[in-house]
Amino acid sequence: MNKQADAPLERGLATLALLIIGLISLANVVVRYFTNASFAFTEELSVFLLVVLTFAGASVALRRNRHIRIGFLERLCPALRTPLIILQWLAATLVLGLVLWFGGQFALEEYQWQSESPGLGLPNWWYVVWLPVLSLLMFVRLCQMTLERLRGGEHDES
């Protein structure tokens, strides 16, 4: 793996999301222990942050060449390496394109309908807009990793 291959924005975002999830979960447990009541907003915020954490972590994994793919076939028949890399890029682009399109449509609808979240009463589009944004970041990292692999700079981990 190229030591310089990194996704610092997504890595920082994932770290921040995990830190906030841990802190609000700890605070909720402590409050529940002492008062027999809990914060109502923690579930809503935790679910949102888990989605951000998942997409940001997946983006980091893409950039670092750590996603599951057809590595066995690439090693079995080196002549198929380039077509398989392109096939992997096409499949991932299709999936990310669908998430980008439908996530964008969903965020736009939530914005137009002015719907609010049940726990905090915040606009739902604040939560949903991260789907297309992080999908686009994942696509950028996918293209970076694919280009490096096509140039021979990135190889599968054994």
From TrEMBL:
Keywords annotated in UniProt: Cell inner membrane, Cell membrane, Membrane, Transmembrane, Transmembrane helix, Transport
Signal peptide per UniProt: none
UniProt KW Membrane keyword: yes
Transmembrane residue ranges: 12-33, 45-63, 84-104, 124-143
Molecular function GO labels: transmembrane transporter activity
One Pfam entry name: DctQ
Cell compartment(s), UniProt: Cell inner membrane
Residues covered by the Tripartite ATP-independent periplasmic transporters DctQ component domain: 23-151
Highest taxon of the lineage: Bacteria
Membrane-related topology note: Multi-pass membrane protein
Cellular-component GO terms for this entry: plasma membrane
Main location: membrane
GO biological process terms held by the UniProt record: C4-dicarboxylate transport
Subunit structure, as described in the record: The complex comprises the extracytoplasmic solute receptor protein and the two transmembrane proteins.
Function (record text): Part of the tripartite ATP-independent periplasmic (TRAP) transport system.
Family membership noted in the UniProt record: Belongs to the TRAP transporter small permease family.
Designated name of the protein: TRAP transporter small permease protein
